[in-house]
């Protein structure tokens, strides 16, 4: 053992609290160390002692006195201070700081104790700690617990690592004098996982607020943990726009099962007795996947509504929402599972989603998909999917699969596929199928206007239905009626004009099952004149159907028994004025006269049927280059033009015998081909062939660099990223059937200027065919499209008439994103933004205080003119961004101008202020050009730390929609 010179003297009394002085510093500074294991004490590890000045040992009392930057280590605890006394007899340690000799006021204390217990660090004025019992008594402690900081004047630590604080402060501010804190006479930290407080109140800048609570519970979240179970405080406010009144939303309980699984149960209540409940499960597995599943049910009471009779009542609307998002995180390419499902009932978004994103509130289409992919080896692939889509009226759902073999060469081993003409031969196999269900009524009457179908009206509506439709068209615009009455009439009108199946059984009965295969064959690539690539291909396809349609034409008295046992009775009687249908227990009775033209009876026969077809194709492409040298004197030295022409041909022979039935449709012996099957490949009843053409262009320049004086240092600049022209021609189009051979000509271009700071894009559609006025329907402003080209106008009978312009559609857009980083040559990409619009917008999550300003601008123009109709222009300019007023204050904005309506578009202004340990945000919607929303605001003031994020002040007004 090594001791100081006075180790065996009477010893120096301990400094501080005893009134004894500190010995002068030695002229030779020594780092003194000692270690000892005592068998009598029962300590299991070595106690190490250090002191920069001196170590004094009192043999009789077994006391060590350590002076100046002293430290004692007893794993896993370490204590450092300017004075430490170690009582070996009691297994205790006592430490405190000493007065700073350089401080003339005599108030400053240097070397206060710092106690480390594992990963925890405690700062204090004095401490007395027992190594054996692990109990301690501390004065004026300050330590970090998870995301929070605790301060206490008198603290007791027990053997279970619980801290009992008297006159305590709890805060998430890391300053010695915090901006805010929770003040309580007693706070107990239980096993470093949670804090339990007696009566407390909130103190801001040492000013107690007149808000108190009887008790408090605060979960202490470790920094590397996903969370700690606890209560979710929620928010409160008033919902004015729909009369639900005051609310208390999103309060409940959060439970973390472990680092990979957690559950949140929240509720919402309104003063008009509306309520809701939401269950959400979040899960994850490192490097594998992450996701969440939630179910929400709401019972909304609409206050002060008026029924169709004018009586006041409060209708109840039950709404629900199911969300499932699953994202794979694995790098594996042989399998994956993903889900993006968001299914909700009508009106759920407008009633429950609190966000400043109007597209989320007003969304009409909901649904999603679930996908699973599994590959075996390098060739076999399989995918399985489920999708559902619904808007206000239509419902569609499908369950499908796809399996197959990737294209491969069956004649040559993969390692030897080099250099032979047949090496590019490829063959593959694709199997697809599934079941599709929707609520669309099959065989709708207005789909068959040229012949009669048994049981289906050829006229869209009966006389009674047409009268009711005319009445409803007037009632929905009657402003003397209540909004609820007009909405009810709109729904009735929609049900008459677009009838839909109701009930799951009816929808499933209307479902179709399809299965098909295809064998794509890529023939060897052929070189023409070295530079032209010709690639022929063949595709064989087959379809398997679970039902077929059989047609029977009847124009006489006859009884027909269908495959399902139902009967159709056709009665021809010249005394009957009009064609009519009557259903009874016997079956369907068709009553008509001899002048009605007969009727077609359709029988749906259950059973497997197979049909196949074949198609042929070829693609030819090349690449041409043109270089224009401009000399070396100017900055632009050369221009390079790249031209990519491509021509494709496809041919599908007619297959009418296998997928179509020739059916007589009227008494004039007119025949037509009607499909035998529902769904499938849609094979044509006659030959089909198309020639497609596309031409793409790129233009780049070789420019001398400004950054180097050397004339040989050049750089390439893209002047035109792409300019593309495409169209197609149907070689089997028939003019007598008013079929158009040449498709619309599509043009598109995009480029960027000023080192990609400004992005430009444009698209146009050219219509090559003439339009003439419709003499029978004056409301048809576009006119009738005929099978004659516009460039033939001068040689036609329409030489002096308007036949429409070539340009039918044009869009142009320009956008830029500017900030100081862009002008310094950095990336123009803006930070990624969370697009989950179902969550309330938090401006603090999307503002970067390191960037002084950010400006995004977008200009768009759209032109449309179909045939002879008047042209229609729409133009808009929008901008968004943020500006730093101070280092911690930003103003955010989003607005624009609609040139057509000459009004300001949806405008939002926000202020975000970082208050060290607090955050303040205010979003205001002063106006909206569409009058869909205006006057709303969202105010939030809360701590930045997630631990106390529910300790907030919120005020929200949704505005008017």
UniProtKB/TrEMBL annotation:
Protein name: LPS-assembly protein LptD central domain-containing protein
Residue span(s) of domain LPS-assembly protein LptD central: 196-769
Pfam families listed in its UniProt record: LptD_2
InterPro entries: LptD, LptD_2
Organism: Leadbetterella byssophila (strain DSM 17132 / JCM 16389 / KACC 11308 / NBRC 106382 / 4M15)
GO-annotated cellular components: cell outer membrane; transporter complex
């Amino acid at each position: 053992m090594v001791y100081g010179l006075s180790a065996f003297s009477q010893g120096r009394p301990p400094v501080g609290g005893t009134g004894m002085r500190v010995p002068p510093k030695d002229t030779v500074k020594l780092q003194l160390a000692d270690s000892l294991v005592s068998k009598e004490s029962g300590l299991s590890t070595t106690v190490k002692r250090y002191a920069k000045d001196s170590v004094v040992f009192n043999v009789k009392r077994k006391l060590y006195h350590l002076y100046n930057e002293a430290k004692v280590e007893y794993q896993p605890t370490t204590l450092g201070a300017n004075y430490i006394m170690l009582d070996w007899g009691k297994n205790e340690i006592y430490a405190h700081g000493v007065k700073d000799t350089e401080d003339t006021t005599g108030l400053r204390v240097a070397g206060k104790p710092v106690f480390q217990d594992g990963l925890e660090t405690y700062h204090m004025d004095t401490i007395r700690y027992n190594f054996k019992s692990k109990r301690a008594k501390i004065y004026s402690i300050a330590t970090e617990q998870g995301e929070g900081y605790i301060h206490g004047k008198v603290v007791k630590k027990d053997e279970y690592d619980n801290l009992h604080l008297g006159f305590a402060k709890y805060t998430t501010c890391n300053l010695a004098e915090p901006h805010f804190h929770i003040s309580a006479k007693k706070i107990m930290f239980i096993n470093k996982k949670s804090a339990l407080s007696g009566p407390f109140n909130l103190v801001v800048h040492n000013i107690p607020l007149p808000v108190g609570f009887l008790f408090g519970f605060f979960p202490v979240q470790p920094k590397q943990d996903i969370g700690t179970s606890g209560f979710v405080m929620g928010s409160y406010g008033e919902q004015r726009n729909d009369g639900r009144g005051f609310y208390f939303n999103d309060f409940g309980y959060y439970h973390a099962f472990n680092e990979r699984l957690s559950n949140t149960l929240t509720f919402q209540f309104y003063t008009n007795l509306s309520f809701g409940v939401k269950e959400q499960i979040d899960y994850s597995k490192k490097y594998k996947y992450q996701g969440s599943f939630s179910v929400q049910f709401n019972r909304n009471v609409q206050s002060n509504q008026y029924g169709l009779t004018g009586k006041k009542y409060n209708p109840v609307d039950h709404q629900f929402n199911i969300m499932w998002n699953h994202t794979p995180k694995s790098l594996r390419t042989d399998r994956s599972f993903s889900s993006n499902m968001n299914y909700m009932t009508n009106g759920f978004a407008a009633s429950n989603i609190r966000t400043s994103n109007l597209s989320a509130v007003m969304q009409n289409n909901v649904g999603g998909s679930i996908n699973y992919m599994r590959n075996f080896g390098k060739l076999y692939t399989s995918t399985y999917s489920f999708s559902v889509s619904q808007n206000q009226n239509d419902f569609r759902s499908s369950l499908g699969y796809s399996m197959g073999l990737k294209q491969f060469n069956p004649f040559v081993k993969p390692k030897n596929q080099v250099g032979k003409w047949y090496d590019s031969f490829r063959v593959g196999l694709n199997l697809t199928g599934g079941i599709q269900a929707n609520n669309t009524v099959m065989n709708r009457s207005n789909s068959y206007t040229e012949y009669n179908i048994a049981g289906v009206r050829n006229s869209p509506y009966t006389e009674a239905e047409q009268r009711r439709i005319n009445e409803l068209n007037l009632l929905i615009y009657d402003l003397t009626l209540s909004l609820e009455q007009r909405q009810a009439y709109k729904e009735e009108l929609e049900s008459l004009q677009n009838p839909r199946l109701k009930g799951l059984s009816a929808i499933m009965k209307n479902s179709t099952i399809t299965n098909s295969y295809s064998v794509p064959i890529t023939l060897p690539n052929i070189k023409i004149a070295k530079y032209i690539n010709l690639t022929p291909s063949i595709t064989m396809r087959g379809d398997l159907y679970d039902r077929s349609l059989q047609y029977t034409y009847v124009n006489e008295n006859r009884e027909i028994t269908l495959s399902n046992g139902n009967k159709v009775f056709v009665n021809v009687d010249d005394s009957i004025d009009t064609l009519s249908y009557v259903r009874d227990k016997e079956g369907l009775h068709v009553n008509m006269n001899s002048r009605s033209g007969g009727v077609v009876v359709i029988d749906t026969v259950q059973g497997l049927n197979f049909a196949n077809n074949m198609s042929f194709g070829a693609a030819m492409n090349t690449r041409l280059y043109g270089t224009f040298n401009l000399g070396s004197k100017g900055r632009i030295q050369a221009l390079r033009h790249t031209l990519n022409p491509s021509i494709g041909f496809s041919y599908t022979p007619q297959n009418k015998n296998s997928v179509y039935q020739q059916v007589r449709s009227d008494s004039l012996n007119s025949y037509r081909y009607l499909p035998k099957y529902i769904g499938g490949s849609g094979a044509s009843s006659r030959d089909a062939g198309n020639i497609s053409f596309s031409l793409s262009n790129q233009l780049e320049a070789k420019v001398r660099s400004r950054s180097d004086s050397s004339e040989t240092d050049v750089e390439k600049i893209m002047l035109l990223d792409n300019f593309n022209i495409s169209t197609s021609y149907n070689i089997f189009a028939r003019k007598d059937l008013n079929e158009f051979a040449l498709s619309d000509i599509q043009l598109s271009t995009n480029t960027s200027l000023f080192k990609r700071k400004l992005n430009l894009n444009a698209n146009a559609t050219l219509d090559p065919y003439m339009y003439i006025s419709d003499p029978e329907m004056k409301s048809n402003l576009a006119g009738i499209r005929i099978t004659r080209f516009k460039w033939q106008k001068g040689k036609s009978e329409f030489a002096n008439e308007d036949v429409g312009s070539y340009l039918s559609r044009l869009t142009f857009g320009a956008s830029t994103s500017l900030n100081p980083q862009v002008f310094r040559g950095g990336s123009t990409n803006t930070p990624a933004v969370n697009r989950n619009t179902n969550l309330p917008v938090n401006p603090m999550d999307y503002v970067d205080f390191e960037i002084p300003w950010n400006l995004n601008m977008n200009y768009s123009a759209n032109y449309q003119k179909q045939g002879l109709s008047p042209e229609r222009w729409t133009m808009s300019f929008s901008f968004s961004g943020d500006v730093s007023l101070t280092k911690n204050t930003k103003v955010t904005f989003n607005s624009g101008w609609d040139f057509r309506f000459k009004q300001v578009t949806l405008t939002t202004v926000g202020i975000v202020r970082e208050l060290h340990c607090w955050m303040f945000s205010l979003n205001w919607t002063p106006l909206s050009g569409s009058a869909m929303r205006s006057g709303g605001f969202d105010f939030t003031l809360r701590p930045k730390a997630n631990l106390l994020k529910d300790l907030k002040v919120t005020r929200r007004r949704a505005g008017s929609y």
